Amino acid sequence: MDSTTLRLMQGAAGAASAGTYVEDVFSTWLYTGNGSTQTITNGIDLVGKGGLVWIKSRNIAGSAQVNSQIPQYNHFLFDTLRTNQNALNTASNFGQDSTWGALYLNFLSTGFNVGNASNIYTNESATTYASWTFREAEKFFDVCTWTGSGANRTISHNLGSVPGCIIVKRTDTTGDWQVYHRSLANTEYMVLNSTAAKATGATRWNSTTPTSTVFSLGTDATVNASGGTYVAYLFAHDAGGFGDSGNDSVVSCGTFTTDGSGTATVTLGWEPQWLLIKSPSIAGNWLLIDNMRGWSAGNDAFSFANTSGAEATGSDFGECNSTGFSMKSIGANLSVVYIAIRRGPMKTPTDATKVFGLNARTGTGADATVTGGQLADSVLIKNRGAAVGDLFAARLTGTGYLETSSTATEVAAGTTILQANPWDVMDGVKVGTTSTITNASANTFINYLFRRAPGFLDVVAYTGNGISGSTVTHNLGVPPGFIFAKGRDAGFNWIVYNESLGGTTALNLDTTDAGLVSSTYWGNTNPTSSVFTVGTLTTNNSGSKYIAYLFASCPGVSKVGNYIGTGTTLNINCGFTAGARFVLIKRTDSTGDWYVWDTARGIVSGNDPYLLLNSSAAEVTNTDYIDPLSSGFQISSTAPAAINANGGSFIYLAIA
Prior knowledge:
The chain is mainly β.
């Protein structure tokens, strides 16, 4: 039975359209096996739409496959056009393993389930796993199956665009994984389970380039032996079809060439989250990296699709950025092909709990995961009871962190502060053992966890060029209301942009200073929905590395605002319905601290503990400067001049 008939039976592949987003069709999900049953809820509908689940153990290497049964800890690929127990292994040329119930996996409308029968392969107790889920959708991904004819032929597909890459595997018996890529000639192919360079053979693709409706096969047994059974995984290339407009692309199949130093910069027009690369010109592995396991400055976690080895860390293959990615240390003057998938979420949030979490906790003195109820891309941790600097860190920079009250350069956290791979969890960040900054026993901490999302927050890492008026691309989708920027490798102040002050004026997060008027900060230019402008030195020193946090007003989620003080009770309407969980306030026309309150410590009708981002001091607990208000927050009549001076100018960031 071919894939067309199977789709009619199970429901057609889901078409991408305006209002479909990358988070609807792709997920990287990390989990630890429990030896029993486990449900992975990644939001991907595999029952109604169909797709592929690819699972690989991370901490244990598998054995080489020597028969039809896939060894433990290997790559396991399950798709909805074959039965749940039929697994394939990208590191082997063997056909599908359909003999052991231990390979059992259930497809769900919200992800998948690994059950009792699969505990020694995809759910062994204490074994860590990475899973990648690809949902069938036009202009992203498609799965096709067929029975070989032994004669030149075409196979219909539902990708809705010309495939950028096609990966074919014979399933009934041995046969290498055959890879077509748009960057190669239609007489050329690569082998996914091999390190070999590209080869030429007209019998793979019948010397014919695929179209938006079919791809061609020759007579080679690896793709079309008479009576053989096959599966193909098709990836689109820059085809649009996603986002609010329906014009955004979420997958790209391209090529780049490294320079004499083995580096390259690739422009996609968006930030990737998953990357598979291989040089077709030389022998080499198929490198697989993603931003969940770790794709950051100087510390990438990676695996090879063609081997059964455990995940490795510590190498620096480059970085992802707002418009693409950079590569290095992969060989000089090499041509390299890739499949890249866009970072999500693409949809503007409507629920603040999905993008912001807060957690008041007591340190354990042992490795722990700080959770906030959602995936975290950035975290701010402060010791509440001790005069200790805070930790402000981002997924983009790995284990490096900065202090909001200091001009100091980025610190590489030791394992007592953050664990070796602090971001490879689905909820929160992993902290270390004895540090008074993050987790010392019996110390109390407040933790703010932020997820990047359009209209709410973006985090951008960039390198300065020293040219005033230069622009930095971001993916916030709207003009930011706040920008907090800091040189990571130079002792610069934190420089803050606020929309009420405009591009002519800046603030320092690490001081109490009033607004500073100078073109050296933001080039006298307000940011747009796609770029922000930098000046020189503290925001754009040539060769310096920077991190920038961009916040915007997102209806019902966050509010960047300003007010004029009255010296009396003042209601701040943020458009919320259940009040603000987080409030940051700064006076701008005179000196004043950066005050922070939150509901985890208490925004109540009595005393409200506050911290100062510009100070390492412990929290103050005996004041009542703000009060709850369902639409936002209320400033009390007892608030000092730094918060509510009559006629004073103030800015704030509130999160619902």
